[in-house]
TrEMBL record:
Gene Ontology, cellular component aspect: extracellular space
Any single GO BP term: canonical Wnt signaling pathway
Source organism: Mesorhabditis belari
Keyword set includes Secreted: yes
UniProt protein name: Secreted frizzled-related protein 5
Length: 306
C-alpha cells in the first residue's frame, strides 16, 4: 500500500500550479458522459471499505458507469473476501471496482493479480466458480506505475496460514468441509511446529466418539518452526476451534486455529455444522448466486452445468 500512500501525498500531484493536472482534474469533475470523475466511495460498497483512500474513479476499470452498477457487481465478491484466501484480495479487487482517483488509470500489477489468483482460484473451483475472464492476469503488466502486492509470502517465511485465519461465517464453513478433524478444546502444549489439544470435543457430524483424546496437530506441513500468535496466551482455560486434515504421513495438519468466540457469525457457523451437507455446499452457493440478477458470472460467462 506504500505505492498508494506515496501517490496521495505527492506534492507534485497536489500542486495547484500544475496546469496539466488542473485541466485533467477539471475534466474528471465534469458532468460530461464517459468522462472520468472522482466520487466518494459509498458506504454500501462494502467490498472496498477501510481502504487507504476515500475517493474512487468512475467509470471504474471494469467499465461500470454508475455507483449502483459498481455496488451490485462488487457485492458478489464479498464472500470471496471473507474466505481469506489471500491477504491482498481486497487490494486487488478494489483496484478494479473502486480504483484510486488520480489523473490517469493505475492498474494492478500482474504479480498482484497472479498472487491473488493463486490463493483464491482453488477455493473458488471447489464451489464451481472458475476464475473469470474479466480478471485475467494477462491484462496487466508489472512495472513502477501499477499497484503491487503488499502481503506476498517470501520464500524464507514459514507458511503458518492456519494461525492467520479469520472467523467469518464463510471461512469457517469452507474450512469445516475441507477438514477431517474439527474440535473445540484447550491447548495442552505448544511446540515450535505443533500443538497438543486436550479436553477436545469433535464437532464433525456423525462422529460418535465426540470426546477426542490428546491429539497432536502440526501447525504447517513444511516441518519448520511456525509462530502462532493465536496460541500466545497464558490463560490455559481458554478454548480454541481447530480444523485439520491428515497429510500423506497420517499426521494432522491444521487448516484453521481461532479462539472460541461468542460473536454472532461465529455461533451461526457452529450451529450450522450439524446440518451442513458439504457435498451440496457448492451447489447451494451456485444456485444462490444464480438467483441474484447482478451475479458476476451472468455478466461474463456461464457456469458449468450442475
Amino acid at each position: 500500500m506504500y505505492f498508494l500512500v506515496s501517490l496521495l501525498s505527492s506534492s507534485w500531484f497536489l500542486s495547484p500550479s500544475n496546469a496539466y493536472l488542473s485541466e485533467s482534474w477539471s475534466l474528471m469533475s465534469s458532468d460530461r458522459p464517459n468522462v472520468p470523475k472522482c466520487v466518494d466511495i459509498p458506504a454500501n460498497l462494502t467490498l472496498c471499505q477501510n481502504m487507504q483512500y476515500t475517493q474512487m474513479r468512475l467509470p471504474n476499470l471494469l467499465d461500470h458507469d454508475t455507483l449502483r452498477e459498481v455496488v451490485d457487481a462488487a457485492r458478489d465478491w464479498e464472500n470471496l473476501l471473507r474466505l481469506n484466501c489471500h491477504p491482498d484480495t481486497q487490494l486487488f479487487l478494489c483496484s478494479l471496482y473502486a480504483p484510486i482517483c488520480l489523473d490517469k488509470e493505475i492498474l494492478p500489477c500482474r504479480s498482484l493479480c497472479e498472487a491473488v489468483k493463486k490463493g483464491c482460484e482453488p477455493r473458488m473451483s471447489v464451489y464451481g466458480f472458475p476464475w473469470p475472464e474479466m480478471l485475467s492476469c494477462s491484462r496487466y503488466e508489472d512495472g513502477d506505475m501499477c499497484i503491487q502486492p503488499v502481503n506476498s509470502l517470501k520464500p524464507t517465511e514459514p507458511a503458518c496460514s492456519a494461525c492467520k485465519q479469520v472467523a467469518t461465517y464463510e471461512n469457517l464453513v469452507d474450512n469445516f468441509c475441507r477438514s477431517t478433524l474439527v474440535v473445540k478444546g484447550k491447548v495442552g502444549s505448544v511446540l515450535p511446529n505443533s500443538i497438543k489439544v486436550r479436553n477436545a470435543r469433535s464437532l464433525k457430524k456423525g462422529d460418535r466418539r465426540r470426546s477426542v483424546g490428546d491429539t497432536e496437530i502440526h501447525l504447517s506441513n513444511a516441518g519448520r518452526e511456525c509462530p502462532c500468535e493465536v496460541l500466545n496466551t497464558n490463560d490455559k482455560s481458554s478454548r480454541v476451534l481447530i480444523m485439520a486434515s491428515r497429510d500423506a504421513h497420517g499426521h494432522y495438519v491444521a487448516n484453521l486455529i481461532v479462539p472460541w468466540q461468542k460473536e454472532k457469525q461465529f455461533k451461526r457457523a457452529i450451529h450450522h455444522f450439524q446440518r451442513l451437507n458439504c457435498h451440496s455446499l457448492g451447489r447451494e452457493i451456485r444456485e444462490s448466486a444464480r438467483r441474484r440478477p447482478h451475479a458476476y458470472h451472468m455478466r461474463t460467462h456461464d457456469l458449468p452445468p450442475l
